Every structure is written in structure tokens, then in C-alpha cells.
């Protein structure tokens, strides 16, 4: 497997801790019906299904966005003068974003506050009765502005092809899933401080990926 | 001066109320504000104050009357939970919305709460085991808002939520299909240019992930429809759609593990495109139902109830009265309601006070305002014009005339026409036939050596293209559009089956009294002989007041405000006249024979001038009745009474004849009167049947039917009941009274006879549209089927042409809106 794919997966594994903070409560609070013990109909499947569907939706959106970004990147690459410019550009952006994730430089806050329209649509969506609404909610929230995921999408564009772009973000998404599924356990047994540190580590991985892309792009010219 | 910390109203320091909340000193203008602020503090919702913006108007909470009982009808109960829609008074800005939502969500047992800022409409859902409407409204009121139940019409709500639901499913299907298209293109490219198996499988798995919600969520209406159909052993079109999309889906899953090609795009596009067709269909239904929605919007939600302490009806001391605004839902029969100029009347009732004109055009089509005085009936939905009225409520809720009209229209749209039943039966055979054809196609292709994937795709094409969606639409949509158009013009058709019979009719039978004529005897002229005209009238009316005859009533009605004489010794001679004594003097009113024999001394003709005699003769020729007055044994007055022919009747008859209908008039009246009327409306003598009793009228119609005619009968619904029932189609004219709505097939809401040719024309056009729709629906299928079998048609193209055929049926039906 390409090194960048592996890195994307690892980014997800580390970054997932952050995702718990943002997305976990949303799903948990809305799946109250299945989660209240003692209520008729509350069983394991009902408890897990919303989470499962939500994550599948999220992963689907990541894959899609990665594919689109990869496709866009491939268009730019196809212009012969711009070959591999994407990789360099993506690398630089990722280094910057990675730095802000690690807290060394810059601030992601401005980006992450922009999601109100998406959240509003999400609330409307939840008034539907079908259980599939969680899938759709997940695929909607996959678009939420998040420093980590946007970094990976940038990488997808930099990878210059639909397929690799899709694979990058797909693997990233899959990496975050274990944390979100175990969110209940995770939030009670793992301290916030620890989660913060793991998140910063993910930032470092993003920087590493960025450097990799940068080098790959420059090597073409060198 | 300090400002109230809650409502920002300025308040003098001496009158302010002080309190400490969460450790801070606060000042308030009143206890109301203080109470709310405390509650906000306790619940931790101080964000409310931060969110408030400039649109907040300072001031304490409004004190509005709260009626808890009005909620009872508005609550919808479900499985362990309940839901209610409310309108909140007192919302001043977006922070109020936020506060209410937060407060409700924090209430134990509430599972969902949403407030719409624009409409102040609130939806709350709660667990009935934990809380109830009393606690919930209590919470809202404690925050200073007054909740009132929101009673929208079920029909409108259902339609809107159906459309909303469909839109979300369509949107989801479209969104995911789009993603799927992208992956499919990548896979196609890979097929031609080479792609590593790992990547291909990854793409295929993603395709599976994204195609699943399309089939299982957006496709749920089809799956449910198919299961329902199969449960009843009926093959409907949902079966075809589900089989087509489902087999593509399942085959693709199978192929993933075999390393072959996948067809998720086929399955998703089928669902998406057909869902699009359904959505457009529902939109068409919604637009057609606008008339109903329009009728429903005529129901006011609030009215002013007049409370008179102590006394019953009769004398109302105006100064003791109490005027209370209440929701219409809480008003009962017997209550008194006040209507001001310009307001809409909320319920059916009888005027007990006041005088005004009321615009009843929405119920009767009459553009002239109806006079309303004490004793007159008023109807829900009509508009009061210039005067104040107080009326006693007689009918509420579903009993009002307006509600019954709406129900009739709604019911009519639900009734099946025979043509539709035929279409349904065809579909019942068609679908299994197509399934067999599809399987046969598949096997034939395999037999001829084609690849199983190709064979499957062809078989799926056959399934999809044969889908008779448009067939199921053809009749209902035409009926829907046509009946609502008719309703807006004053023609209520009670069902689709009636349309079929009506358009076939060749004979129109008109009842005379009340249909062709106004049905009321009116005094055309009065003349005194040897006394003033009005004096003669007064004498005659004083006597006729005691008689029930319609002629008598005509005389009395013409009197208006006159004072009547006191009558002694009143007796009536049936068929002849009436007699009595005024101040000891004999007074007689009656026919020529009666007066000539008993009313006067001397010969009759000698007592009358030539002019009067000839005038009387010509009046009688024209079908009027002439009665005479004798006073003190002298001929003292002449009265001409007639039942006027409606001015539109002549034109209506002309139009019917132009439409090649045989027009016949039937009546219980005398031959001469009938003949006179017939001449006015230009009907030949042989088309008139006079002196028929209600039962005889029905017999005449039966005779016509035995002669092979299809009879369309028009009457006023009351004494024509047997005939209306006997006729193939019975139409009742005039206001939509109970009797008419019950016994007639078609109700013409105004007294304009021209509605009859209009109604007949409408049914003919509706039937034509139905036939056209069925033709188009079938044509698409029949032409495309061979193309699909031979493999010329890709399933996606098949799905597109299906939507097109549905669209053409919708478009054709919309033409009826302009009839």
C-alpha cells in the first residue's frame, strides 16, 4: 500500500479522539429512544444501529469528497505545465494546517465555527422517522468543516487521481470509526487531556504527510 | 429611571420590584417579569438575555385569556407518545423562540420541541407516561407566552407532509445517485483502461454503501407498496419497480465477490427517476387541491363570544355584556357570537341582533350581498360587510355547511370510477404478464448465448418499461383536477362514477318550480278598486296572514312594515279563498269563482272595468294567478301573483339544446302555468309534462329510461327526491342544503340554471381527458416493450421514458383546470 494511504489511516486513528468531542454527542443525544434501558424495544441492535449508520454515512461522504478532490486534482495535473503542482500546493497547505492542529502555530477555530447551516439541516432531518436518517445525517455531517478532515481532502486533491483521492479519505474515515463507535466507553474512561495529546499527534502525522507530498512534488522538478 | 432587567421597560425606582437571582441584584417592573426571570435563572437559560436583539419590544408579558379545554381536539396520540401543534402569543424575537424551545426540551417527558419564528407555530412531542398537555402549556405560560391550539386541516397537513417526505427521499436518492454516477464512471473507465482488482473492489464496495440508502430509504414507499400488493395477491406497479431495482442491486452484490461488473447505478437511477415522477404527481395533486385549501382558509380561528350573565335569550342588557375572544374550536351550539364589519363568520347560526349584508359568494356564487336581519341564517366562511351582527350558533365543526361541502369534494375524489376499476384490473393482469415476459427474455438471451449480465439488464429493462405507473394515474388525476375545478365554479360532483354516466346523458329533465322558476310566489302588482292600492293590500294581507298558502304568503311578504288589521272569524275555503271580518265588516280574498260566488253582490264582470278584465286575462295567459279582494260585499282589489321564471333559464335551455340534449320540463303545476313558462324558456309544448306528483315524476323518468334514454334530472332536492333518485344522474340546485347533499349526485351551489350545461360540458371534457390519459399511458408501454425485449433499451432510458409518460398524463390533466 502506498505510504500516504497508511498515513491517512493513522491520521484517522489518532484524530478520531477529537471527533468524539465534536460529533459524538450529536448522535448520542438523538438516539435516546434506543438507549434508555428498560424502555420497551431498547436492545443492542437499536443502540448500535444509529451509530453504525451514522458512521457509514460519514465514511461515504469522506470517500466521495476525496474522490471529487482527487478528480479536481487530476484535472489540474493534466495541464502539463501544472504537473505535480498540486502535490506541492497540497503539501504546503497540509503543513500549515498540521501546525495549527498541533497547536504550534495558527488557529483552526474560524473554520470550525462555519458549520451552522449544516447543523440546522441536520436538525430538520432528524424529525424524520426512519432509522436511515442517521445515515443521511452522517453523510451530511461529513461535510462539516473540520481541520483534520479538510487536511486529508487537500491531500486527496494533491494525490492527483480520483481513485487515490477516494482511498485516502476513505481510509482516514475508517480510521476514525473505532473511536466513534466506542464513544461511550471512550469518553468515560479516557481523559480529556489524553485525548488532546493524541489529537496533537494526529497533527504531527498531517505535517509528515504534507512534507511527503511536498517532496514528491519537488522531486519531479529536481 | 432604571430599566426592568427582564423586559427592559423603564420603571420608577419606588415602584420597582427587587430580587436576587443567582447572586445578582435584579430590578423588575412587575411580578410577572420577576417570575419569568427567576425561572430563567433556575433553568440556567440566561443565554436568553444575551441573544435578545433590537426587535424586542419592552414590556411585561401580555395577559391573555388561556383556554385549556381548546387543546383537547388538537392533540394527536401515538404509540406511547403524543404530539400537538400550537401557536404562541407573545413571541417578540428570535430569543423567545430559543427560550421556548430550550424550556420545553428541559421539561421531563418532552421528546421533541420546535418553534418556527416566522409563524410562531410550535410542535411538541412528549411521552404520555411522564407528562401531559397541562404541564407543557403551564411551562410555556410560566415563560410569559400564551399557547393556543393550531388546528390546520388534516387534508392540507397530510398533503404537505407527504410532499415534504417525498422531497427528502427524492433529494437523498438524487444526492447518492450522483455520487454513484461518479464511481460508476470510474469503474467504466477502469473496465476499458484497466484497473487493479483491489481498487476496483474498493470502488464497488463504496458503490454498494451509497446505493443502499437509495434502495432501502428512498425506495421504502415502493417496497411497502409492493409488499402490500403481494399480501393481497395483487401485482401492482410497485412490484415491478422493486423487482427491477432490487434484482440489479442483488446481482451487483453477487458480482462483487465474483470480481465482475456492478450495476448499482441502474438500481439507484430507477428509484430516483420514478420517485421524481411521484413527486411531480403529488405536486399536481397539491395544486388541484388548492380549491379545498382555499375553502378551508375561510374558517376563522378566533371569534368574539358574547357572554350575557344570568339571562337566557330574549332581553340583553347591553351594558352587562362581556365580550370574550375565544378559539372557534371551543365555541358550542347555543353560544352567542358577535361579528363586526369586515370579519368572516366563523360558524353557522341565526342572527338575533343587528343588520348587515353578507357576501355569500364563496358558498353560493351569488355576487349580490344577502340581507341579514334577526331570524336570518348566516353561514361559516362568508364575509360580513357593513353592519354589526350578533348571532346564535346552530352548527359547529364538521356540521357547518362549509365543512360538509369540503367533505363532499374530498369524498368525491376518493370514489372510484368504473373506468378506473377497469384500469386497475388491467394492471392486475398486466404486471404478472410482464414478470413472465421478463423472465422469458432473460432465459431466451441466455439460450442464445449472451452473457448473463446482458441478459439480466435486458430483463430489468423489460420490467421497468412495462411499469404502468401512468395507468394508475390516468383516471384519478383527471377526476381530481376536474372536480376541484367544478367545485370552484359551484358544481359539486360527488364521484368519478357520476362523471361517466353524466357525460353519456342525452336527456335533461328540469323541474319547474324552484328550478326553472324562482319557486316563490311573488306579488307582481296590486290595485285597489274604490280604495287606495295599499289599503286594499293591507286588508288582503291581514286576512292572508292566517293562511299557509303560497299565494297568501306572497301577498303578506309584499307588505313589509305595514300594520295589519285585527281579524275575526277567519275561515279558509280550500282552493277558493279565505274570508274573515275586520271591524265587523266582511272581507274575502280568493279566486274569481270564489269572489264571484260569495264575495260580492251582483255579477262579477260588471264590477270590473274593461281594462282590468283584459289585463287579468293576459296575466293568466302568461301563467300568473289573479286573486280578488272583496270588502263589504264590494269588489275592492285585484292582485297578480306569479312565480317568476329565472332570467338565466332561457339561456340555459338554449345551451342545452345546442349541446344536442333533449330538454323536458316536468311539474306538479297546472298545464296552463306550465305552458306559459315553457313559452318563456322556448320549449315546445310536447316537451312539457304538467300535473305530475312526485311519484309520477319518477315514473315518467323511468319510461324515458325504458325507451333507452340516459336521464339527467335537475330539481331543488326537496320534493323531487324520488325523481332525482330514479334519474341516471340527479342534480340538486340551490344552496347546498343537507337534503341536496344527501340525495343528489351533483349539487349546483347557486340558483343559476346555466350551471347545468356547464356541468355537462365539464363531465364530457373530464371523460375525454381520462381516455386520452389512458391512451398515452398505454402507448408508451406498448411501443417500448418490444424495444426492451430486443435489448435496444437500457434500463436507465426505460426509467426516463416512464417518468415522461407520467409527466404527459399530469400535463394533460392540468388542462382541465382551464375548463
Question: What does this molecule look like?
Answer:
- The complex is a heterodimer of chains A (222) and B (819).
- Chain A is mostly helical.
- Chain A has helices spanning 3-30, 32-35, 44-78, 85-101, 109-112, 116-125, 133-141, 147-159, 162-181, 183-189, 192-221.
- Chain A is globular.
- Residues 32-40 of chain A have low confidence and may be disordered.
- Chain B is an alpha+beta fold.
- Helix content of chain B is 50%, strand content 19%.
- Chain B is built from 29 helices and 29 strands.
- Chain B has a 7-stranded mixed β-sheet, sandwiched between helices. A 6-stranded antiparallel β-sheet of chain B has the order 9-8-10-16-11-14, with no helix packed on it. A 6-stranded antiparallel β-sheet of chain B has the order 19-24-23-22-21-20, with helices on both faces.
- The radius of gyration of chain B is 37 Å and the shape is flat.
- The chains are: A mainly alpha (222), B alpha+beta (819).
- At the A-B interface, helix 3, helix 7 and helix 9 of A face strand 5, helix 5 and helix 6 of B.
Which features characterize this protein?
heterodimer; A: mainly alpha; 11 helices; B: 819 residues; seven-stranded mixed beta sheet; six-stranded antiparallel beta sheet; 29 helices; 29 strands
Topology of this protein?
The complex is a heterodimer of chains A (222) and B (819).
Chain A: H1 3-30, H2 32-35, H3 44-78, H4 85-101, H5 109-112, H6 116-125, H7 133-141, H8 147-159, H9 162-181, H10 183-189, H11 192-221
Helix pairs in contact in A: 1-9, 1-10, 1-11, 3-7, 3-8, 3-9, 4-8, 4-11, 6-7, 8-9, 8-11
Chain B: E1 17-21, E2 24-28, H1 31-43, H2 47-51, E3 76-77, E4 81-89, H3 94-106, E5 110-116, E6 121-127, H4 133-142, E7 146-149, H5 154-193, H6 197-218, H7 220-231, H8 237-258, H9 264-288, H10 290-296, E8 302-307, E9 322-327, E10 336-339, E11 348-354, E12 356-359, H11 361-364, E13 370-372, E14 377-378, E15 383-384, E16 389-395, H12 401-414, H13 418-447, H14 452-465, H15 469-489, E17 491-493, H16 496-504, E18 507-511, H17 512-516, E19 517-528, H18 533-544, H19 550-557, E20 568-573, E21 577-582, E22 585-590, H20 592-599, H21 604-607, H22 610-621, E23 625-631, E24 634-645, H23 649-658, E25 662-666, H24 671-680, E26 688-689, H25 694-706, E27 711-715, H26 721-726, E28 729-733, H27 738-743, E29 746-748, H28 755-789, H29 795-814
Parallel strand pairs in B: 18-25, 18-27, 25-26, 27-28, 28-29
Antiparallel strand pairs in B: 1-2, 3-4, 4-6, 4-7, 5-6, 8-9, 8-10, 10-16, 11-14, 11-16, 12-13, 12-15, 17-29, 19-24, 20-21, 21-22, 22-23, 23-24
Helix pairs in contact in B: 5-6, 5-9, 6-8, 6-9, 7-8, 8-9, 8-14, 9-15, 9-29, 12-15, 13-14, 13-15, 14-28, 14-29, 15-28, 15-29, 16-28, 18-19, 28-29
